[in-house]
Amino acid sequence: MAIVVTMALSALTSCVSQAEPPHTLTPRHVRVIWHDDPATSAIVSWTTTEPGTKHLVKLRADGQEDWTSIESDRNEQFQGELGGDTVPYAHHTTLTDLQPATEYHVVCQTDDHPSREFYFITAPNDDRPISLLFGGDSRSGIDERQNVNRMMARMVAEQQVAERPPILALAHGGDFIRNGTALDQWLAWLDHHELTTGDDGRLLPIIPARGNHDMGPIFNQVFAFPERDENYYAVSLSSYVRLATLNTETSTAGDQRDWLADELAAERWNHRWYIAQYHKPAFPAVKIPSGALTNWVPLFEQYQVNMACEADGHVIKRTPPLKGTKVDPEGVVYIGEGGLGVGQRTPKTSRWYLQDTAEHCGSEHHLHLLTFRPERFDCRVVTMDGEVFDEFTLAPRTPPQVSARTPDAASVTN
After folding, report:
1. How far apart (Å, rounded) are the C-alpha atoms in residues 305 and 121?
2. 85, 93, 300, 370: which one has the fewest Cβ atoms less than 10 Å from its Cβ?
3. Buried (b) or exposed (e) across 370-396, using 16+ Cβ within 10 A?
4. According to the model, what pLDDT value does residue 400 have?
5. Using one digit for the tens of pLDDT, what is the confidence trace for 144-166?
6. 139, 198, 143, 133: which is closest to 168 by C-alpha?
7. Which residue numbers in the chain have pLDDT < 70?
8. How far apart are CA 171 and CA 310, in angstroms?
């Protein structure tokens, strides 16, 4: 049960002197995870070295003085070994009944040890322009991973200062670390993910997909999924943008394909823009196609999905719109394939689906900045040095029965 408390901010955020090591119960790795309704809910997670006895999040909307204390709903020791070191604990608090497009301030606390004050912004539920970061494959290239994370924080801040469509979250296409059963690698990734937090405490929510290197139970512990969750789900980022996260590391047929068919039938034409993210590509620039080609692509084409965001190949890739094994202006654009630190490969641009866009493929660490507006959808590839490598625009689709809220068009322009 939530308890309303009022206290001075200094009392909330008082902590041990910076000259001393943090207490074993001081929260670290504070993060926000979205895999439900990001307009009205969020999961706030953190790590402690020792188990502690009481864990909570103090929450207030921007402009309010009173804080609400919400106890964590899941506390557990990570599954793994650390060679004699203490295995730390994960804590997750689910926040519900939030207001859309609202800045919420949070302080995580275990026993009497609070974190610093952070904040995040919920997704809107209206038609306003928004942006999303997409990338994958942060499993190696540790210095590069940290530099890309710093770039994310800068991009979020720059969008805000320039009053451009705000970056809501990071959609991560998987392969967070090299070995999903290695707890030390996950803890290092969590350390580095803190670099995505702005100097002002702005947290960048994460929407995670599982990659082939993310095997084992720790993925679900890090990202607050149920123990045996299959990790496919969909979230609405506004009233007109929806993102489906799929899992290429389990069967792409069967239950998952059925779920995708039902999801698209129910939600595709309720949203002007519909995109998907997953790890192993259907139209790879380096490797062989995954089961997504057989099981998901026909559904993407049937429901005129705007874009599929892929990872795993370690290159910059952009296909032309594809439909029925050919280039077609009414087809789906596939982008990727992972540049959040991992060493880059050379795209095989002689493949039929890359020949028309060969100049837009490359081998640099990168992020995709996706910006959604009512009249267009912009995709920009930003390299680690801040340069724009590629950019293009998509126009909205014409639904089977045109509604007033969805403009006519089905084209791709550079």
Report:
1. 27
2. 85
3. bbbbeebbbbbbbbbeeeebbebbbbb
4. 83
5. 999 999 999 999 999 989 999 99
6. 133
7. 1-20, 401-414
8. 11
The pLDDT value recorded for residue 372 is 98
Q: What pLDDT does residue 89 have?
A: 98
Compute the distance between CA of residue 399 and CA of residue 187 in angstroms, rounded to an integer: 45
Which of 120, 115, 125, 135 minimizes the C-alpha distance to 60?
120
Q: How far apart are CA 183 and CA 89, in angstroms?
A: 11
**Is-contact 272 239, C-beta < 8 A?**
no
- Cα–Cα distance measured from residue 252 to residue 246, given in angstroms and rounded to the nearest whole number: 8
Report the distance separating Cα 387 and Cα 366, nearest Å.
Answer: 9
Are the beta carbons of 392 and 413 closer than 8 angstroms? yes
Looking up tokens 């077609």 gives: 328
Put the strands of the sheet holding 241-245 in their side by side order.
233-236, 241-245, 273-277, 307-309, 333-336, 317-318
Across 115-196, the runs of DSSP E, i.e. the strands, are 118-121, 130-135, 167-172
